[in-house]
Amino acid sequence: MNRRTLLRAGTALPLAALAGCLGSIQDLRLSTPVTLRIENESDDNRNVVIVAHTVDDDRQTYDEAVSAPPEQSASVGHLSDEEQHLRVELVDESGEEPESGEVIASEETFIGADTRSVVVYVSTEDVRVEVNRRD
Fold first, then answer.
1. Which of these CATH numbers, 2.60.40, 1.10.1420, 2.60.120, 1.25.40, describes 34-133?
2. Which helix (H) or strand (E) holds 104?
3. PROSITE patterns from the entry (predicted)?
4. Per-residue pLDDT tens for 1-11?
5. Strand order of the sheet with strand 127-133?
6. What is the C-alpha separation between 19 and 9, in angstroms, rounded?
7. How far, in whole angstroms, is CA 16 from its chain's centroid?
8. pLDDT value at position 15?
């Protein structure tokens, strides 16, 4: 084996290995979390239940009951950026656990990879969901 053949083999093998790695890197998708915030516009504490399910297989990805302080906003977590069905419920303040209270109002929406944040606006008798998309 001469020197040229050895050099060609020495450069061809790493390039072939690198090409295989680049193919799998292109298949990767970076996940950016979706911020979730509640803004209570009323003068009282309001109980909100937020539930999210994936669209593909109906897997539950988020389930949280939150007591929103009056006239304040609070960040309550992050959602994954996969395609999801989001349901937000405003429940009564009967002194029971928020999950078991009577639903006063609810709103549903869809979020996905183009969603940057979700803001839930809560008033005395209503809930409104605003979905902010990425550019």
1. 2.60.40
2. strand 103-111
3. PROKAR_LIPOPROTEIN
4. 566 665 666 67
5. 73-79, 34-40, 115-122, 127-133
6. 15
7. 38
8. 66
